[in-house]
Amino acid sequence: MIERPDWDHYFMQIAAVVSTRSSCVRRQVGALLVLDKRILATGYNGAPSGLSHCRDIGCIRKEMEVPSGERHELCRGLHAEQNAIIQAAVHGVAIKKSVLYCTHYPCVVCAKMLANAGVLSLVLKENYPDTLAKNIFSEAGIVVNFIV
Predict the structure, then answer these.
(1) Where are the extended beta strands (E) located within 36-134?
(2) Which member of 3, 63, 73, 81 is catalytic?
(3) What's the Cα-to-Cα distance from 8 to each of 40, 91, 105, 125, rounded to whole Å?
(4) Residue 18 CB-density burial (10 A; 0-12 exposed, 13-18 middle, 19+ buried)
(5) Is 81 an annotated catalytic residue?
(6) What span, in angstroms and rounded, lies between the C-alpha atoms of 33 and 58?
(7) Can you say how many angstroms the Cα of residue 26 is from the centroid of all Cα atoms in its chain?
(8) Closest by CA position to 124, among listed 5, 3, 4, 16
(9) What pTM was computed for the model?
(10) In 3-state terms, what secondary structure has residue 120?
(11) Per residue in 93-131, pLDDT tens?
């Protein structure tokens, strides 16, 4: 018999599947916003709807050898967390007091958005060296947990 996953592992497995839709050439990230064990919205990183994908036209950050975590404004794509927030907004779904499940630690830009959106906690798989994001989560009282 297959072992039934707990809720955190279940949602993280779904986030991993969502990440497979990513069109980023550098990192595939998937995110879910969950409230009361129900998925409110999903997101993956990639170019905005209707725009050419980086896999098709290339990545300016890769070409310029921009290190991870720097010069976010050069990226034509949206982060998975941003896309999940946008998807919820487009469909009129409130995400206040939700939990973010994400395959990777959010950057500082996403940290600010998640704090302002009222997300209460994060469940993450991969860490990311963004001290400012960590400080924002701490100051905002957003609980960060890692899953293996």
Answers:
(1) 38-44, 99-104, 121-126
(2) 81
(3) 15, 25, 15, 10
(4) buried
(5) yes
(6) 29
(7) 15
(8) 16
(9) 0.93
(10) coil
(11) 999 999 999 999 999 999 999 999 999 999 999 998 889
